[in-house]
């Protein structure tokens, strides 16, 4: 049997194989470009902090002697600011909260439901997630900002775009009620698509 000298031996597994040993929190965050998975590892004995966004390591800190604090990073195509807060709740128990754009995840998602519309549809054997940002009228489909053309029509506006060879538009009409505001409807190949809550 031939021995391999220590200096020629391969090192242990890379970080990706040993990841998630101290996983303490996972969040799914719906942004215009898609739903992003944020995972956080916190080694309370080693002082390790690791943040993964969609499986990709964004932050790695070893030997952090202060076990509480925050980690800030960006998520998605629009580089949305996210912060994980680490707070001690008692003894060696910790609470982990996620903030998006300076708001708690719950508040951020409540606000997003007011500022965006989302539709999920199935076309040509594929799933598509279409998001309208009401403040900018930007349209996103499966993580890509779509090229659009706006058009004024008798009862409102239409924002036209294509998914593959399917003609799509988002129709915006007044509800006639001040509290409801404008109603946005996605039309694909002349049929209305139900909004996803």
Automatic annotation (TrEMBL):
The keyword Cytoplasm applies. It holds the Pfam family FAIM1. GO terms for biological process: apoptotic process; negative regulation of extrinsic apoptotic signaling pathway via death domain receptors. The keyword Cytoplasm applies. It comes from the Eukaryota. Keywords: Apoptosis, Cytoplasm. It is found in: Cytoplasm. InterPro entries: FAIM1 (IPR010695), FAIM1_dom_sf (IPR038513). GO terms for cellular component: cytoplasm. Its main location: cytoplasm. Belongs to the FAIM1 family. Plays a role as an inducible effector molecule that mediates Fas resistance produced by surface Ig engagement in B cells. This is Fas apoptotic inhibitory molecule 1. The gene is FAIM.
């Amino acid at each position: 049997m031939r021995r391999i000298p220590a200096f020629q031996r391969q090192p242990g597994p890379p970080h990706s194989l040993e990841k998630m040993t101290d996983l303490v929190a996972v969040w799914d965050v719906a942004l215009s470009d898609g739903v992003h998975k944020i995972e956080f590892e916190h080694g309370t004995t080693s002082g390790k902090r690791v943040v993964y966004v969609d499986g990709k390591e964004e932050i790695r800190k070893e030997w952090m002697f202060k076990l509480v604090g925050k980690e800030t990073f960006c998520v998605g195509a629009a580089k949305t600011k996210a912060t994980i807060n680490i707070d001690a709740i008692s003894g060696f128990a910790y609470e982990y909260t996620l903030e998006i754009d300076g708001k708690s995840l719950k508040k951020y998602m409540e606000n997003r439901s007011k500022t965006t519309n989302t539709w999920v549809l199935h076309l040509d054997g594929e799933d598509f997630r279409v998001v309208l940002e009401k403040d900018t009228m930007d349209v996103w489909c499966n993580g890509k900002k779509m090229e659009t053309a706006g058009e004024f029509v008798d009862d409102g506006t239409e924002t036209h775009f294509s998914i593959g060879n399917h003609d799509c538009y988002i129709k915006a009409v007044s509800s006639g009620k001040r509290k409801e505001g404008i109603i946005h409807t996605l039309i694909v190949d002349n049929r209305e698509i139900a909004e996803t809550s």
